[in-house]
Amino acid sequence: MTPLDRLLNWHSDWRVSSSTVECRHCGALQHEDAKSELFEHDPTCKLYQARINPWRELHEITTAFGRSDPVIRESSARPASS
Ligand SMILES: [Zn+2]
User: Fold this and answer.
1) Which of 7, 47, 62, 67 has the smallest count of CB within 10 Å of its CB?
2) How many CA within 13 A on the CB side of residue 26?
3) In this structure, is residue 72 part of a structural domain?
4) 81 lies in a domain?
5) CB under 5 Å of ion ligand 1: residues
6) Residue 79 lies in a domain
7) If you measure from the C-alpha of residue 9 to the centroid of ligand 1, how many angstroms do you get, rounded to a whole number?
8) For 21-75, how does the pLDDT look when each residue is reduced to its tens digit (9 = 90+)?
9) Domain range for residue 35?
């Protein structure tokens, strides 16, 4: 799995804003200040036990991008079509 695949996979389960990450499945939120703690999903969430550290996952993915390929920089530098 490439870093881009991992990033897309991450975004399929999480939504991130300036300082919080939200589970797309149960809507639980975690502030960046609490990123060293386990993410608390709703007990009915399908990610309840599977994905409990979204900030660390995101950090690992962005670190992988920094090491391997520039695709994220190219895509973010592309001008918006109008
Ligand atoms: Zn959840």
Assistant:
1) 67
2) 16
3) no
4) no
5) 23, 25-26, 41, 45, 47
6) no
7) 15
8) 999 999 999 999 999 999 999 999 999 989 889 999 999 998 988 865 555 454 5
9) 3-67
